[in-house]
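Data availability (excerpt). The following record was deposited with the supplementary files.
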Amino acid sequence: MRITEAGGVFSAKVEKVFDPAKQDARCEKCSDERKDQPVVGLSIVRGVKASASDPTLWDGGEILDPNNGKTYKVRMKPVDGGRRLEVRGYIGAPLLGRTQTWVRVD
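Predicted structure:
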C-alpha cells in the first residue's frame, strides 16, 4: 500500500501483491469506475481526513475490499510512532467491522 496525503485528504493505492497467483488480479466485483481494473495500482482508500476531535485518528472516508467489490466506511489510526497503521473497515458504526494492522516497510 502507498498512502498519500493531498490537501489534508488521505488515500491509499495497492502498490504490490505478494501472492504470485494474484499478480494479475482485477477488481471484477467492483461496481464503480474501478470495475475490471488491475488490483495493483488500484485506489482502495479514499477521502480520509484527520478527525477534528482527535487529530491522531483519521476517518470520514471509504475503503474498498477488492475481493468482494464492496466499500466500507474506514477509520485509521497510526500507532508505534507511525510504524503501524490500524485500519478499521465497518458498516454503520465502528463496532460493526474488522481491523487490520498495516506495517510500514522502509
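Summary of structural features: The chain has a mean pLDDT of 92.
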